[in-house]
UniProtKB/TrEMBL annotation:
Keyword Cell membrane: no
UniProt record similarity statement: Belongs to the beta sliding clamp family.
The protein's name in its UniProt record: DNA polymerase III subunit beta
Keyword Thylakoid included in the entry's annotation: no
Amino acid sequence: MRIAISDGIAAIAFYDYETAVTVRMEATGDDCTFAVQLEELVNAVKAAGSKGTAVFSVHEKSLRLEVDGISIAAPLGEPAAVEDAPSVPAIDGEPAFIVSGPEFADAINALEVSRGNDDTLPMLTGVRLESDGARVDAVTTDRYKVTNVRIPSASLPGECEALLPGKPLAALGKRAVKESSVSVTLGGGDTVAIESDTVTLVLRKLDCQFPKWRQLFTMVDNASASFEVDAQSLAKRLKSLTASTLSVHLGITEENVTLTGHSRDGDTVCTFVLDSGNLRVENSMVIAFNTGYLAQVLASVPRGAKVHCSFTKPNRPMLLEWNQTRTMLMPVRLPG
């Protein structure tokens, strides 16, 4: 990677011809440019630990990191390495949309629940972004879950449609909570720039077809039952059941909602009545879900938020909605 210090700013840039990352931070001293092996720098940071404030200093043959009395050096590359390092592509033009950093962080956190990790199905590992001039839609799916985050408060100077690699966005999402804004700009070809106060990502669009997600959400129209629950409270309880249960069955009646946990052998592990509100039932039903998947979705809901759950039939997905997010979770087959 190449590190350039100029006018009091250190720009740390890495580009592997698929993803370009530039991180900016304050610096002091003379302007200079040098190269360092990414693996060497990562190892030095890991060895120093994550606590405390790190101070980097440039020496004749090394980049030295000091934190809490620990000093670790990463060797500098040869001068030719600066010239040989690939240049990060520049993307000009107006942003397609701009959102606040915390909004971007919340959106990515919710989307991660439904993003796939099977590299043989790259369309499921990405994040679909769509802007139509009225709002931004971001979508992920792993075939078992589909999450759509709608961001109506985004600044929308243009339109955008792209399927982007999910891992770099997930990393930026963790950092964006402390950033003031995040912008998305389309390049002239197959690249997209995503920029916050301190980080710029240049990503190549994934060259594959994303599922027609809007059609998927029509599967949960005309709900025949619905209720609200405290997401974090139920997520915590379900997480404690993931080791002993494979699925949970929701018995939904006009009186209450009963959750029953079942083991891999089909044995009943536990039964309890959910603390639910705004219960509305036209047709009673029993519907089952994978315990781990349901716990993951509920755990992604911000603390203190209520999630609205709606159902159509026992063989149709459940729709979970909170704030500007909606997630569709596929049911599992009931025995018999």
